[in-house]
Structure formats: C-alpha cells, structure tokens
Amino acid sequence: MKAKATIRLQFSSEKRLNVLLNALLPEANRPATKRSKVTLTREAQLLVLTVEASDTVALRAALNAYLRWIQSTISVLDSVDDA
User: Fold this and answer.
1) Backbone angles phi and psi of 13, in degrees to 5
2) Is the pTM of this model over 0.70?
3) pLDDT in tens, 29-60
4) Own/partner pairs, 59-63, CB within 8 angstroms, 24+ separation
5) H helix and E strand count, the chain
6) Does the first or last residue of the chain, that is N or C, have fewer Cβ atoms within 10 Å of its Cβ?
C-alpha cells in the first residue's frame, strides 16, 4: 500500500459510536475492491478510520465513501432522536 490516511472522529455518545461501528464493520470486513483496505476501531469516544490504498485515487474514493456513510448514519440517528 502506498497511500494512507487516518481520521479520528469524536462522538459525544458511546451508543452512537457503537451503532456506527456496527453499521460500517461489515463493509470494512468485505471490501468491494483490493485497491484499498479499511480498518475501523475505537479509542474511548473516538471512531478511528484508517484507509490504506494502492494509489491516491483509491484512497480518495474509499475516504469519500466512508465519510458519506458516516454522515448518512449520523443523519439517520439525528432523525430518530428527533422523532
């Protein structure tokens, strides 16, 4: 792997962090392509997203996908909390 990025996102709720991890782990465990590898871990109240890729194009694509999924999940959780 030639390109790597690590993003740490802080959550105020452990419950939200657990929901997010459970939602994304199946995707991380079965990648759609071999050009990138994603690991999701937690450090206290932080979600740690690490992406390793064979090139910067694959790195950007994987990062964009996971960040969109994270935002979508947060949006759904916000809607459920408001209901």
Assistant:
1) -120, 130
2) yes
3) 998 889 999 999 999 999 999 999 999 999 99
4) 59/3, 59/4, 59/5, 61/36, 62/36, 62/38, 63/5, 63/7
5) 2, 3
6) C
